[in-house]
Design goal:
The protein is α/β, with parallel strands linked by helices and 411 residues long. It has 16 helices and eight strands. Strands 1-2-3-4-5-6-7-8 form an eight-stranded parallel barrel, surrounded by four helices. α5 links the parallel β4 and β5. α6 packs parallel to α7 and α13 packs antiparallel against α14.
Length: 411
Amino acid sequence: MRKTVVFGTPISPAKLMDELRGQSFCVSYANRRRLGAQLERCIELVADDGLLLVDNGAWSAYQAGTVMDDAYWAEYERWALDILERCPQAVAVIPDSITGGLEENVRLAHECMLPTERCMVVWHMHEPLSALRYLVESGYAYIAIGSSGTYAKVGTPQWHARMADAFAELRDPELERTYGRPHIHMMRAQAEHARYDYDSSDSSNVAVNHCRYRHEGEGHLGRFAGRVRERIEASCDGEKRVETPAEVCAGADELRVTLAHMARRDQPAGETGHAVSACPVSPDYHQQEAECGTEPRSLPLFQEVPMSDFIIIRKAGFEDELERVQRLIEKSADMQFLDATRECPLHANDRERVERRLTQLRAQRDTLLMVRDVLALPHRAEPSRALELQPREIEREERERLEQEVRADAT
């Protein structure tokens, strides 16, 4: 596997940032004012296959005694979404509470409005292992592990024992075969990264301690960061195990742009306005539509448009996406799935959110099924032609194809 080393910010003095070009970074909402222009530098300097971790600042807020209310989280999500829109390598940490129970963290995850495929959910080590398993089963692509409760101090015997239990859960053959293993990130325990199979870890070690090596002369920060990275990278084979954030972002954009256009074609004639896709539309949707030569806010929804100009859905991994949606439907359809564990009972408002999510997932599944039927047609070698078909044409052409096969068999 490949291990990614994420360096905390801000770096002082700021001119030393250039020594970390091509690395991965963490920017924290708690430090947003201190960051200043360094946020833009992180977006500019992050590696194409790297990670820009957008942290929610929960740990800093916990240490400072800051109250994280709904207003705090709303401002954080606006700040994080702006970064996600401008940086494909960015992944945002879902709001979480260090001292809150499992019920509180599930509620925060349900209420998060950030795009799910660009989010990292946190499992706190004091929470039950079944909660970690639930996050995997829920389809999160990124899961962070946070030291908390009895396991707040990194490196103790209790901490290592708990970490061994967590990885035993993640390596369960049935879980991995059914859901795959997500990207695992370790918060604040980069010193242990060489020992465990985290996909990434973050630390402010370089940002805080680089001044100790100033006597080495110019480039001391880059050399210090290199030593940290080399020790961790020596513990793995460097083979990529999961898609990079930029690849996940690109794949999600391709899927959603195509489905958004198909959703427009299915609207009743005469309606105008911005089409609502069966899938959440990516932040780059409007820009990509502009590149395709369409005007989403004024184009009649039923107008004929050249589908060949659109970004075509990636066939690779399409069935996996459909299976993932189906698993989420099955999970959401069981409205008692948290009550049954008796570890995190659902409140009435949580049930309403799950029901809305279930409705969205069913619409997404129906659209995915329609796309799959289109791609399965005899002329699937011409994707632009295939995607121009209306659902009724799909049924008619499939029926005609079957009739031709019957006639051919008869002769």
